[in-house]
């Protein structure tokens, strides 16, 4: 049963990527389904921080849907690819938040759970929390965060025997790299108003 559920999560993960590249708000509906699926998969695999992240991801998908819907044209399609960059201040805040989240998650996993890889799990989860917010804000550097998270996750899921999910994250890594350059080439930097997050 868990194999079937995991494969369903993998399939919805690929569907999510397709819509993310097209900057379609449908990606957030798929993200809701995907997040709900992986909450159970990660609980079964004792990856508690990842499980908690997907609960967070479930919630932030509604926020992402709201933010992206505001940029849709009247026909429900995105008005081209728009992105923005971090400001230096925001980059510093993000870095501090990531370190703080890592420390808290690691200590909780180490002391309160039977997580077999608390440091690895805390690392990918703390970066994922920030990456999800960046995605919702269309910050182009979110692709770089996902490259790091996805590559590290391949190792983590191999260790835990989640081979279909490991395959998904191998593809995620390659696509995140491509996505960065695709947005950079075909997108338009949003520079008006308070464009910096």
Describe this structure as you would to a colleague.
With 197 residues, the protein is mostly helical. It has one domain. It is built from 7 helices and 2 strands. The chain has helices at 2-21, 26-44, 48-69, 88-112, 118-136, 142-159, 163-186, and strands at residues 82-83, 188-189. Strands 1-2 form a two-stranded parallel ribbon. Helix 3 (48-69) runs parallel beside helix 5. It is globular. Residues 192-197 have low confidence and may be disordered.
Secondary-structure map with pairings?
Elements: H1 2-21, H2 26-44, H3 48-69, E1 82-83, H4 88-112, H5 118-136, H6 142-159, H7 163-186, E2 188-189
Parallel strand pairs: 1-2
Helix pairs in contact: 1-2, 1-7, 2-3, 3-5, 4-5, 5-6, 6-7
């Amino acid at each position: 049963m868990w194999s079937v559920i995991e494969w369903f999560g993998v399939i919805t993960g690929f569907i999510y990527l397709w819509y993310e590249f097209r900057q379609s708000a449908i990606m957030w509906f798929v993200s809701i389904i995907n997040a709900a699926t992986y909450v159970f998969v990660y609980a079964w695999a004792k990856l508690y921080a990842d499980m908690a992240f997907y609960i967070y991801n479930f919630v932030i998908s509604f926020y992402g849907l709201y933010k992206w819907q505001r940029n849709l044209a009247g026909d429900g399609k995105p008005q081209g690819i728009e992105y923005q960059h971090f400001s230096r201040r925001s980059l510093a805040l993000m870095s501090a938040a990531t370190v703080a989240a890592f420390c808290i998650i690691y200590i909780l996993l180490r002391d309160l759970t039977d997580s077999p890889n608390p440091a690895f799990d805390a690392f990918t989860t703390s970066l994922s929390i920030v990456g999800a917010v960046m995605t919702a804000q269309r910050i182009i550097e979110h692709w770089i965060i996902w490259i790091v998270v996805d590559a590290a996750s391949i190792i983590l899921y191999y260790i835990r025997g989640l081979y279909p999910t490991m395959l998904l994250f191998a593809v995620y890594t390659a696509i995140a790299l491509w996505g960065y350059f695709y947005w950079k080439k075909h997108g338009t930097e949003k520079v008006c108003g308070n464009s910096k997050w």
